[in-house]
Specification:
The complex is a heterodimer of chains A (95) and B (493). Chain A is mainly α and 95 residues long. Chain A has three helices and two strands; from the N terminus they run H-H-H-E-E. In chain A, strands 1-2 form a two-stranded antiparallel ribbon. The longest helix of chain A is centred in the first third of the chain and has 18 residues, at 21-38. Chain B is α/β, with parallel strands linked by helices. Helix content of chain B is 37%, strand content 13%. Chain B is built from 16 helices and eleven strands. In chain B, helix 5 packs parallel to helix 6 and helix 10 (309-324) crosses helix 12 (356-369). Classes of the chains: A mainly alpha (95), B alpha/beta (493). At the A-B interface, helix 1 and helix 2 of A face helix 10, helix 11, helix 12, helix 13 and helix 14 of B. Chain B: Pfam families: Amidase (PF01425). Chain B: Belongs to the amidase family. GatA subfamily. Chain B: InterPro entries: Amidase, Amidase_CS, Amidase_dom, AS_sf, GatA. Chain B: One of its GO terms (biological process) is translation.
């Protein structure tokens, strides 16, 4: 499979990365090189094979359902570009 | 007397314990060496004040007879580990100004054991690369040069700063991470030792995520013993990482003297790839001969799905990366670039903050996870991953204790030499290492010789899950036989 220019723009939008018109062509070439490289996987017989979900056989650990951390709003927002009263500020989302 | 920064970590530990020098002196020796080595660009930031303060605490502990296991030993930290109050960048512009309010589990355990932090080491952006050329903070230059040449070489990647700093004596050892070969390939390129432990051995908590099912932390150091000492402190169960295993941490350092007598070492025939340079094949044969002389049995084995590991990796890793890197949205940390609305802000922030290779991988990941392609790419790759793991399980079930392979298909290349339009050429660097991540196994890279141009070459040993001890024993056997590599003289100082 290979991607056309329109698909490159659609993927970029899905990934929330702005691309300029000049970037689309080279990106298309690079993505297609990678897609051509992974094409060989089509030759592998995967009938009846389970997809890997965990490299080491382990049960998902569960912790006790208790509050063991918190009260750190100031730490959480400390690195944000824009905040007010321990809230993140974003551009207007709903009119 | 050897300069303090040229001691091995084990020698420095002994010297500090017997009070031949102070923690402050050895920290200062490293800080001076770092200052003179700016041209290598191994450190993104040095933290001299913190280093000297930690060294003072160490000297007080030593004076009171309360020395901890790594007391006063100066280390570098790959800038993928969150360090409290110290700029943490992942080599990316998008984390500009990020100062974590928490410490990664692995680095916290090193400080718990008395180690001293020298600074944050350069890397490929978000650990995506094999040459340290994708860092937003500039390329790291290898301390190695080809004989009679001044062409700057890459230190490998993504832990290029870690490997270069260790090889140039800018730290006694360093933390690193490995998703597809990012510890073992730079170690091989710089004549240093690097181990990627079994998935789950070290906590990923506080390590900036690239591909969560593959990422694992490990050390790079100048000897097998030094790596064993460091891994002993870095490893261990952490309830904050659900994939961190609740197993006791063995005495890795004790394992180095076990030898390989009675072990069976597998040689996978599929690793004899087309176009492999003759000197890599010779090195591999030599490694097998050394292990045989030391009492191991050498056995040819087959890992039939080897060739599919790299293409499957380039589906799984970008898919996980596209999900992990969704968090960089200009809201919670780092860079924000305004846009006409919130989606525009996201798009502009990510366009300006991510470099080319990172964008490429996020986009591939987005594509293979998108509606209609998920089964054809992602599910198929995960099934192939199961087959790759089965290959190893069959080999181990047939009585093989560890597997010997070359670490890389070539010695280090020059900066810019791989800048072709086809990204796959660079990806081929990881052809021998990536299978190990796909199967979650431990792998160690150990220097085994020099190529015709005087550059170091490494061998890789792959172990059973959670059997790093056998890897340390076998790697020590190779180190003993090959002799320690003479690291380059400081042309940069």
């Amino acid at each position: 499979m290979s991607v056309d220019e329109k698909t490159v723009r659609r993927i970029a939008h899905l990934a929330r990365i702005a691309v300029t018109d000049e970037e689309v062509g080279p990106l298309q070439g690079e993505l297609n090189a990678i897609l051509a490289f992974v094409e060989q996987l089509g030759a592998v017989d995967i009938d009846g094979v389970e997809p890997m979900t965990s490299v080491t056989p382990m049960r998902m650990k569960k912790r006790a359902d208790v509050v063991n951390d918190g009260g750190r709003a100031r730490d959480v927002v400390a690195n944000a570009p824009e905040t007010e009263d321990n809230y993140f500020l974003v551009p207007k989302v709903v009119e | 007397m050897t300069a303090l920064n040229e001691l091995t970590l084990a020698e420095a530990r002994d010297g500090l314990a017997s009070k031949q020098f102070s923690a402050r002196e050895i920290a200062q020796a490293h800080l001076d060496a770092i200052e003179k080595a700016r041209a290598l660009n191994a450190y993104i930031v040095a933290t001299p004040d913190r280093a000297l303060k930690m060294a003072e605490v160490s000297d007080a502990k030593i004076a009171k007879g309360e020395a901890r296991p790594l007391e006063g030993l100066p280390l570098g930290i790959k800038d993928l580990f969150a360090t409290q109050g110290v700029h943490t960048t992942a080599g990316s512009k998008i984390l500009e100004g990020f100062e974590p309010h928490y410490e990664s589990n692995v680095s916290a355990q090193l400080w718990r054991d008395g180690a001293v932090m020298l600074g944050k080491l350069n890397l490929d952006e978000f650990a995506m690369g094999s040459s340290n050329e994708t860092s937003a903070y500039g390329k790291t230059i290898s301390p190695w040069r080809r004989q009679g040449s001044e062409t700057p070489l890459v230190p490998g990647g993504s832990s290029g700063g870690s490997a270069a700093a260790v090889a140039a004596h800018l730290c006694l050892g360093a933390t690193a991470t490995d998703t597809g070969g990012s510890i073992r390939q730079p170690a091989a390129f710089t004549g240093t030792v690097g181990i990627k432990p079994t998935y789950g051995r070290c906590s990923r908590w506080g390590i900036i995520a690239y591909a969560s099912s593959l990422d694992q932390a490990g050390p790079i150091a100048r000897t097998v013993q030094d790596c064993a000492i460091l891994l002993g402190s870095m490893a261990g169960h952490d309830p904050r990482d659900t994939t961190s295993v609740d197993l006791p941490v063995p005495d890795f350092e004790a394992a180095i003297s076990r030898g390989v007598k009675g072990l069976t070492i597998g040689i996978p025939k599929e690793y004899r790839v087309e176009g492999m340079p003759a000197e890599i094949q010779r090195l591999w044969d030599q490694g097998a001969a050394w292990l045989k002389e030391a009492g191991a049995t050498i056995k040819e084995i087959s890992l039939p799905h080897t060739q599919y590991a790299l293409p499957a990796y380039y589906i799984v890793a970008p898919a996980e990366a596209s999900s992990n890197l969704a968090r960089y949205d200009g809201v919670r940390y780092g860079l924000r670039v305004p846009g006409k609305d919130i989606a525009g802000m996201y798009e502009n922030t990510r366009a300006a903050g991510f470099g080319r290779e990172v964008k490429r991988r996020i986009m591939i990941g987005t594509y293979v996870l998108s509606a209609g392609y998920y089964d054809a790419y992602y599910v198929r790759a995960q099934k192939i991953r199961t087959l790759i793991k089965r290959d190893f399980e069959a080999a181990y079930a047939s009585g093989v204790d560890a597997i010997l392979t070359p670490a890389t298909p070539s010695a280090a290349f020059g900066i810019g030499e791989m800048a072709s339009a086809d990204p796959v050429e660079m990806y081929l660097n990881d052809v021998f290492t990536v299978t190990v991540n796909m199967a979650g196994l431990p792998g160690i890279s150990v220097p085994a010789g020099l190529d015709a141009q005087g550059l170091p070459l490494g061998l890789q040993l792959i172990g059973r899950p959670f059997d790093e001890e056998t890897l340390f024993a076998a790697a020590q056997t190779i180190e003993n036989a090959a002799g320690r590599i003479n690291l380059p003289k400081a042309w940069w100082a």
